[in-house]
Design goal:
- Chains A, B: It is an enzyme of class 6 (ligase).
- Chains A, B: Belongs to the class-II aminoacyl-tRNA synthetase family.
- Chains A, B: This is asparagine--tRNA ligase.
- Chains A, B: It catalyses: tRNA(Asn) + L-asparagine + ATP = L-asparaginyl-tRNA(Asn) + AMP + diphosphate + H(+).
- Chains A, B: Keywords: Aminoacyl-tRNA synthetase, ATP-binding, Coiled coil, Ligase, Nucleotide-binding, Protein biosynthesis.
- Two copies of one chain form a homodimer.
- With about 600 residues, the first copy, chain A, is an alpha+beta fold.
- The first copy, chain A, has three domains: about 40-160, Nucleic acid-binding proteins (OB fold (Dihydrolipoamide Acetyltransferase, E2P), Beta Barrel); about 185-225 and about 330-580, BirA Bifunctional Protein, domain 2; about 235-320.
- Chain A is built from 18 helices and 18 strands.
- Chain A has an eight-stranded mixed beta sheet with strand order 6-12-13-18-17-16-15-14. In chain A, strands 1-2-3-5-4 form a five-stranded mixed barrel. Chain A has a three-stranded antiparallel beta sheet with strand order 7-11-8.
- Chain A is extended, with a radius of gyration of 34 Å.
- The two termini of chain A are about 60 Å apart.
Chain lengths: ~600, ~600
């Protein structure tokens, strides 16, 4: 393609995009005018609060219309000396609540003003959308003409009736927690980031692959994995089984052997006197007894294998042939392995699913169950990998700024007043890239100059600690930075060995507030090098046959990375505890609902 | 809003939509012209096959350009008496492969023609895109000028080298399975349906909620659930613990009691003779011995509780205080409970995540691990619920027809020649709705008229079997049908009781080829009715406190449904076995990778 024509096309594309954007804005507002009823509430004829307050003019276009709004009262107060009340009604479609004015005579039909103003009360209100006086926060309010539904809420017993409740307290009321302001905002932010994730990868030609949750792969280190089993549930089945000791079994075995001898003798006697019917009968009886004893022994042997309700192998470990998958099975810690299988067939894939760690960690940064995004790309080297990671994170930030304005404003005001600025900076600035060796030099320099003391010593070869990572991104670069080419000894065996023989093509994306957000690498695609790395690591090469097959049959350079979804939300919101950014957090001793 | 103005706006909206669609089509083609390089392969300068063959003109626009294409050889053959070879190169971005012509002199630089033509070989080819002769299947082919990468593939050992391999065989080669034609097509169809799911719910104002995978909720029936535990992994820790029998423990207990008496006596003697130092010393010695015995007993008691490597309660069941979550934990069977928590705060939510059944089922329709979509809506009754289910399924069909044409054509040709017609019909026709009572009457009628015999008898009150469901949708209505208002006795306690007192507001969506695709209901939102239903079911009301709280504090009418994602793919593809439509199927005895 010639440079000139390319520029011409580029300009055309630009102009087309602008035209489409303009038309879409007009379409959006026209659609709202046309269709204010939320589609899956036709029976209730309900309009979402976001349809009213989320429009560009703050709902003015709908003034004069009769609308129905359903939701929960955030706050309510009587006014006009008992002539009416104001309700802030929230339906979760937007951070903001719609102000609803209910005249006393309307309220009286459903139990009076008091019954409506309690926090947590649900209402479906029909009314006319009115303009509010100039200077009021919202441009419109709903003047109720009819209350169609009231779900009362007793303030005296409502667990989260108070305005300010601690995060710890809310964690004990997980089923009501999404009704709290911050948790509601986080839910919408989490939703937006999840959809941004899908949009980004879909727009860029990645296929979404559901890698397995239950895995029996031998490659996974069983160290900090949850086991998935039906053996404990089966204990009951073995309850009546008599317990047989080793001694009893020995006794039976001896009896069996003795009877064996007896059979031999009886048979010999019978054979010697073929005409003797008594000897023949005795021989038959001996055989019958032997068979009975054998059966008894087999049963006892079977019983002796059941210890504490679980069938065992001779060494006392559970006999996993009895388990659901006929072998030990675990909850996945990563979908990378299976992701590589798919990338080495379909080129560009991503996963987005739950992953698990059975770590006894009670920190604000760890969960036993969390969600990960793991793209994997064929014909992709470390430079491409870094670019993809950067584009993805920046896309998410942009999407959030465009779609969750009210939530971010609340977060910025109540949780972290640098949240919006951080998102804006990340959305608009290319990430820095620095090699591990350069990063170590930079850190050593600030230590040498006495600018900063670290708890952990800085030397080439160390695994960077969170303090180092955060100093790099927050103090030295003051923006996201990608560190690449790490020492091979601190990274996984599957990362591609660089020419220098001492580093691997690995990269970490470090961001302010969180530190490491993404870890990725180019994968070792050379069969011989990979085999050597597995052997050097003292691992069982037979367990990696499938993985090695990818290098045997049409190997391609490929790369990928993993992002902990909750870390991304921590980064976006500035919240301190990861337990607040997942709907139902799991940690040691805790799995409510 | 007046009817007239509404019609005017509707026309405007129509026209805006058409304008945008037209501009977008132009934009798409211009973008392709501008940017043929796949963004995360910049280092390799690679163009996706979909960019070439997936465009409206079949790639003609790019004729004359120098492009690089990377992928795997589907088939290769030498031609022109050894002067060149043709490779069908597939990169997974599209069902179709791109034809690449490699002259002998180009191939010789990388080992000759033979090295390239083996199925499964990976190549990165640089060449010129040429027009093919009129009448050729594809409009373009790549004429190689350089081969930049070859990953050889030995046809003699390559497990899936043969053209036709059975599904069963492919399941044993799970890591190479996505390279097979059908499995590749299914991967793209699955991806399209997953994204369609997200798009549909996002466009309609639903929030994506990640309900938990590990659950310790008392409400879940533990019947067919997988248990999640760290107890089996801990067995090793108890390996050295001496085993203490009940008799030994009794002996120690008796000793302890005796020593207690001894202490009492010694103390009394010492108290009677306060000056006697020997008696005081004897008393002290007796106490010391008692303390030592107590310690010994405690240790023995602790040891006696460890049976078969697991600490037990007195009744022999595991002591779950020792487990990771301090109580029994399981893999979720549904996110509905937690979905309701969120819908009763944020109005409209959906889940899309893995669910599990520890059922010993080997059928072609069951998996131990599968993905479910569960929307839940506040201020939504059964009619709205049915509408949402219908709109969602039809949206998915439309999306698939628009985005996976080549894959569907292959499926239609090789798997099920009614697949495309079925999708088109569903996309374009509103679903029938029929009450359970009407459905039973219809089925009884065909039985009475001798038109059809069923294995299971048809009577009001029965749970519809797959044979009944399929007959309704495939024979009677010949299209998707929603059956609603089922007898309360065959449905779950949480479904809203209808006025008749004998049916509940439940619905099932039945589709040809699969039968039941969706099950849903309006939830019982009346506290007293729900409590009664729980009691009637003989369930423990205390276990449902959180669920009842939703009805105590601002209750709202709400509804939801569940769709098994793999069932949707079976419906779309007509494949017979559910193990083919999930990347890593799990069933009893099987969990490879």
């Amino acid at each position: 393609m010639e440079a000139d024509s390319s520029t011409g096309v580029a300009a055309e594309v630009e102009s087309l995009r602008a035209q489409i954007a303009q038309l879409e804005a007009t379409l959006k507002s026209k659609e709202k005018e046309l269709d204010t009823v939320y589609p899956y509430s036709r029976s209730y004829n309900k309009t979402s609060v976001v349809t009213i307050l989320g429009s560009e003019d703050g709902g003015k276009m709908l003034i004069g219309q009769t609308l129905r709004v359903g939701g929960w009262v955030k706050t309510g107060r009587e006014a006009g000396a008992g002539a009416f009340c104001f309700l802030e009604v929230n339906d979760g479609s937007l951070f903001e609540s719609l102000q609803v004015m209910v005249p006393k005579e309307v309220a009286d039909e459903v139990g009076g003003l008091k019954a409506l103003t309690a926090t947590g009360t649900s209402v479906l209100v029909e009314g006319r959308l009115d303009a509010t006086p100039e200077g009021t926060k919202q441009a419109v309010e709903l003047k109720a003409t009819k209350i169609l539904h009231v779900g009362p809420c007793d303030a005296a017993t409502y667990p989260i009736a108070k305005k300010k409740t601690s995060y710890e307290f809310l964690r004990e009321k997980m089923h009501l927690r999404p009704r709290a302001n911050t948790l509601g905002a986080v839910s919408r932010i989490r939703n937006a980031l999840a959809f941004a994730t899908h949009k980004f990868f879909q727009e860029n030609g990645f296929l979404y692959v559901h890698t397995p949750i239950i895995t029996a792969s031998d490659c996974e280190g069983a160290g900090e994995m949850f086991q998935v089993t039906t053996l404990l549930g089966k204990m009951k089945e073995y309850e009546g089984t008599p317990s047989v000791s080793a001694e009893q079994l020995e006794t039976l075995k001896a009896e069996l052997a003795a009877q064996g001898e007896a059979v031999k003798a009886a048979k010999a006697a019978a054979a010697a006197n073929k005409e003797d019917k008594e000897l023949a009968a005795a021989s038959k009886a001996a055989v019958d007894k032997l068979l009975k004893l054998k059966e008894e022994f087999a049963k006892a042997e079977e019983s002796s294998r059941i210890v504490g309700g679980i069938k065992r192998l001779p060494d006392g470990t559970p006999d996993y042939k009895e388990d659901f998958f006929s072998k030990p099975a675990f909850l996945t810690v990563s979908g990378q392995l299976q992701g590589e299988f798919y990338a080495c067939a379909l080129s560009n894939i991503y996963t987005f699913g739950p992953t698990f760690r059975a770590e006894y960690s009670f920190t604000a940064r760890h969960l036993a169950e969390f969600w990960m995004i793991e793209p994997e790309m064929a014909f992709c080297d470390l430079a491409d990998d870094m670019q993809c990671a950067e584009d993805y994170v920046r896309y998410c930030c942009k999407h959030l700024l465009e779609n969750c304005q009210a939530d971010l404003e609340f977060i910025n005001k109540m949780v972290d007043n640098t949240a919006i600025a951080r998102l804006q900076q990340v959305a608009s600035t290319p990430f820095k890239r620095v090699s591990y060796t350069e990063a170590i030099d930079l850190l050593k320099d600030v230590v040498a100059r006495g600018v900063k003391k670290f708890e952990y010593n800085v030397e080439w070869g160390i695994d960077l600690q969170t303090e180092h990572e955060r100093y790099l991104t927050e103090e030295i670069f003051k923006q996201p930075v990608i560190v690449y080419n790490y020492p091979k000894d601190i990274k996984a065996f599957y990362m591609r060995l660089n020419e220098d023989g001492r580093t691997v093509a690995a990269m970490d994306v470090l961001v302010p507030k969180v530190g490491e957000l993404i870890g990725g690498s180019q994968r070792e695609d050379r069969l011989d090098v990979l085999e050597q790395r597995i052997r050097d690591g003292g691992m069982d090469i037979a367990a990696y046959e499938g993985y090695l097959d990818l290098r045997r049959y049409g190997t391609v350079p490929h790369s990928g990375f993993g992002l902990g979804f909750e870390r991304l939300i921590l980064f976006a919101t500035g919240l301190d505890n990861i337990r607040e950014v997942i709907p139902f957090p799991r940690w040691p001793g805790n799995a409510s609902y």
